Amino acid sequence: MILVLSNRNHKMTEKDFKILISKKQRGLLNKKEEAILFSFEKKMLAKNRKDIFLNEKHKLKIQQDIYSKIIHTKQKTISSGWIKVAGFLIVALTIGSVGWYTSLQSDKVNSKQTVAKILSKEVSYGKKLTFILPDGSRVKLNSGSKIKYPEVFNDSIREVTLSGEAFFEIKEDSLFPFIVKTASLSTRVLGTTFNIKDYEDENEVAVTLATGKISVGVKGEENIILSPSYQLNFNKSTQSLKKQKINLDDFLGWKDGILRFDNEKLSTAVIKLEKWFNVKIKLQNKQYENCSFTGVFKDASLERILENITFVKTNLKYKIISSEEVEISGFCNN
């Protein structure tokens, strides 16, 4: 049996097809093989997917059922069983089985097409969270951040909404772009790793690209393309944009438990510490605006960081009032 699996009429034998399906179940497909299977599916469904599937969620469930049946059949027999299963798969993807189709028509009569449920993840100050999106992309949320996304992405775009800071590792898919929206901007990618920081209580927004390429759009401005190790800064007050080359470690260390201060003013460092440790830090002297320091801390406690700051700035003192409140007093020796 010969299967036509691409727009370029690349022909593949039943044996080749069997190998690809088996590799898919074990998560061993390379990008080229994924593209071949995806192209096959798109081609087979092009004319009748509206009649076969209620929505994307239903489509994914059917696919999972098919692949599980294939593996189950493979365990029973390797020869004739595969011919039957391969034939079953083609029929299912092309016109749908009688059972599915009948069930679908009944569902259409009794209910309207459903809209994907919106899910959300939220991280309080002092914590972080790593999780996987429905398409397999990985997200790490920083302290005080929230993200919203559909339970199942639709068949044209992958879109999430972010408030706060997150690092994304996007699963590559050239046909379905991935978009991250914040209150200030929209970032569009195909497959890459990048960081977005846009807290409601902070004036500066930053999009930092680690690998790949992204397009960042701000209302009223042309989209800006970023290459690796570049960052786009947006000032909410002045509505100004700045693109600059940066050291990735200075901005992405948070996801690995690293707090970095590079000649940073104490007033802005306090904001980081408050989010990181979920505490309120009170500064007794306004003069601290011009007090700056440098330091790198990995998995360090708040007390250790404060000890280091006051060791360098000998006229500063700190007092831990409670687990949620700290006071810094004295004078800064620049």
Automatic annotation (TrEMBL):
<keyword id="KW-0812">Transmembrane</keyword>
<feature type="domain" description="FecR protein">
    <location>
        <begin position="126"/>
        <end position="214"/>
    </location>
</feature>
<feature type="transmembrane region" description="Helical">
    <location>
        <begin position="81"/>
        <end position="101"/>
    </location>
</feature>
<dbReference type="InterPro" id="IPR012373">
    <property type="entry name" value="Ferrdict_sens_TM"/>
</dbReference>
<protein>
    <recommendedName>
        <fullName>Anti-sigma factor</fullName>
    </recommendedName>
</protein>
<dbReference type="GO" id="GO:0016989">
    <property type="term" value="F:sigma factor antagonist activity"/>
</dbReference>
<dbReference type="InterPro" id="IPR006860">
    <property type="entry name" value="FecR"/>
</dbReference>
<keyword id="KW-1133">Transmembrane helix</keyword>
<dbReference type="Pfam" id="PF04773">
    <property type="entry name" value="FecR"/>
</dbReference>
<dbReference type="InterPro" id="IPR032508">
    <property type="entry name" value="FecR_C"/>
</dbReference>
<keyword id="KW-0472">Membrane</keyword>
<dbReference type="Pfam" id="PF16344">
    <property type="entry name" value="FecR_C"/>
</dbReference>
<feature type="domain" description="Protein FecR C-terminal">
    <location>
        <begin position="259"/>
        <end position="326"/>
    </location>
</feature>
